[in-house]
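tokens incoming
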């Protein structure tokens, strides 16, 4: 439902976004020049990599670390998927971004691209995804990259044991997008001491540099672009739906996908249709709203599982059909930065006495493992110059750290071009040995 709301809602953003349409024939460059619109729309079909419609994917389940509360009865056991080649091949562990599961749209696209290129592929959910959080997180408080990496690494070991009999593996690689990209780097660093896999290549798509900086930016998108902040989200979405209903005349039915949105984007004429009150900030508002909804799930589940008492009184038990109106509202008010400051940091300072907040936040950034990143020729980053989750100076930091091991596209926002021809070709070439 949220994905549909975001798709519908981009209509608001189209009213004053500068148009760089290329017609029916692409010129090879990603066409959406507005970074917020690109983040929401994704890759139009003419620019997408040619991927198979279906590949042989099997879903697996691993036993959880904790007993699952009655409220989460539907999420018992940790799930992942694997697409395995018939013969000997490298295996890629693919880690999802913030709030995303192993079978999200981006994860499926990456899995198809890698399988088509001849790799075994294991797709893993993000530690911030509900199923992972309640089944595989030791602390049930995701967001601290070193501990997230420990959890992911343990899942990687168990997942490989599950498929080992059916997978003839020549070598192992790890990759991820967004938060999953940062996780991939921390996992690879951990593997240098654990040596279960002897990971050969690390591919990072649109990573954050400093996680706290990135979530601060995303938190602020809602505050800056939705009138009334979280209290105004309902009104904002109502305006969005009304605008679409008044403006769109379906001929062959509505299909709320990237191609529909790109068609609207490239044909929008503000002089004829008028500019709505949200203007170009509509897409930014939608991204901020989506992020807050994802982080609200983390806040509620983390509080329930870890018994911090932040919004749920200690000792509270929920049944399978419990009404959660109050707790849903309370968790949506909490910014992700507040979750970090009020739930994660106190837990970490109790576990690691003497470490300051500044030290702990620093350990949840690429700065903490920069020696590993700078000295490892088998690490590659791909990102965009108009990336929305990087603070000023962070792109330049990565360019200085990685040199020719970072590829920066001009446009695409945050993961908007993840399945474009150019991005997929870069990923496959690097994992197959090219630079």
């Amino acid at each position: 439902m949220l994905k549909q709301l975001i798709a519908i809602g981009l209509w608001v953003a189209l009213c004053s976004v500068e148009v760089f349409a290329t017609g029916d024939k692409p010129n090879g460059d990603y066409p959406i020049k507005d970074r917020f619109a690109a983040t929401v729309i994704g890759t139009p079909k003419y620019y997408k990599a040619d991927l198979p419609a279906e590949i042989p994917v099997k879903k697996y389940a691993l036993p959880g670390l904790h007993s699952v509360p009655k409220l989460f009865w539907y999420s018992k056991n940790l799930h992942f998927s694997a697409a395995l080649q018939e013969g000997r091949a490298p295996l890629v562990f693919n880690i999802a971004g913030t709030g995303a599961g192993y079978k999200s749209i981006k994860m499926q696209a990456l899995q198809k691209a890698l399988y088509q290129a001849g790799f075994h592929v294991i797709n893993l959910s993000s530690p911030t995804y509900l199923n992972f959080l309640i089944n595989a997180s030791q602390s049930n408080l995701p967001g601290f990259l070193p501990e997230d990496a420990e959890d992911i690494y343990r899942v990687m070991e168990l997942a490989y044991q599950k498929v080992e009999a059916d997978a003839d593996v020549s070598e192992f690689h790890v990759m991820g997008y967004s938060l999953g990209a940062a996780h991939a780097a921390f996992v690879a660093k951990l593997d240098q001491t654990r040596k279960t896999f002897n990971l050969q290549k690390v591919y990072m798509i649109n990573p954050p540099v400093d996680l706290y900086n990135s979530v601060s930016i995303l938190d602020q998108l809602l505050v800056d672009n939705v009138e009334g902040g979280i209290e105004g989200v309902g009104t904002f979405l109502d305006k969005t739906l009304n605008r679409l209903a008044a403006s769109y005349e379906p001929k062959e039915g509505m299909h709320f996908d990237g191609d529909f949105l790109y068609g609207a984007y490239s044909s929008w004429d503000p002089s004829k249709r008028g500019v709505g009150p949200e203007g170009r900030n509509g897409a930014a508002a939608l991204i901020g709203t989506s992020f807050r909804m994802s982080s609200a799930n983390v806040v509620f589940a983390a509080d329930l599982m870890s018994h911090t008492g932040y919004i749920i009184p200690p000792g509270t038990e929920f049944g399978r059909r419990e009404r959660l109106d109050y707790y849903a509202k309370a968790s949506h008010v909490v910014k992700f930065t507040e979750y970090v400051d009020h739930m994660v940091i106190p837990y970490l300072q109790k576990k690691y006495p003497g470490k300051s907040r500044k030290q702990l936040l620093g350990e949840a950034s690429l700065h903490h493992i920069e020696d590993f990143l700078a000295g490892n020729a088998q690490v590659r980053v791909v990102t965009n110059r108009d990336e929305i989750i990087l603070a000023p100076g962070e792109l330049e930091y990565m360019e200085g750290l990685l040199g020719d091991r970072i590829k920066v596209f001009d446009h695409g926002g945050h993961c908007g071009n993840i399945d474009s021809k150019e991005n997929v070709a870069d990923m496959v070439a690097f994992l197959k040995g090219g630079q």
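note: The domain at 1-435 is CATH 3.40.50.1820 (Rossmann fold).
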